Every structure is written in C-alpha cells, then in structure tokens.
Amino acid sequence: MSRFRKLSHVLWHCEYHIVWVPKYRHRVLKDRVGFDAEMIRKYVKFQEKIEKDLES
To answer: Domain range spanning residue 38?
Structure first.
C-alpha cells in the first residue's frame, strides 16, 4: 500500500508528531508514570521498526 492516499482532487500523507510540554519546569513524568511513558515510547518505536522491516 502506498504511503500516500488520494481522491479525485487531492493527494495527502498524514503523520502525527506528539510533543509533551509541561506547564512548569519541574519533572512531571516521574516514578511509575514516567516509567510507563518511557515503555510506551519504546514500544511505539519498536512497532515502527517492524513496519519498516515488513515494507522492505
């Protein structure tokens, strides 16, 4: 499947970029919450690697 999608009048490629911006400068993601966020980040990165390997 192509990375691009199209209709009769448009061609597009949609990607998302998530940025975590805390309101204050102190650590917000700490203890268990920080650990879980890091595990999710690593899992998503691993899934993207698998998808790239499958495409080639």
So the answer is: 18-55
Q: Give CA–CA dist 32/15, Å, rounded.
A: 29
DSSP state letter for 30: -
Residue range 4-56, pLDDT digits in tens? 788 888 887 877 777 777 677 667 778 888 888 889 888 888 888 777 777 76
**Structure pTM?**
0.43
Report the number of distinct structural domains present in the chain.
Answer: 1
| Cα–Cα distance list, 43 to 1, 32, 37 (Å) | 23, 16, 10
- Strand-pair partners of 5: 12
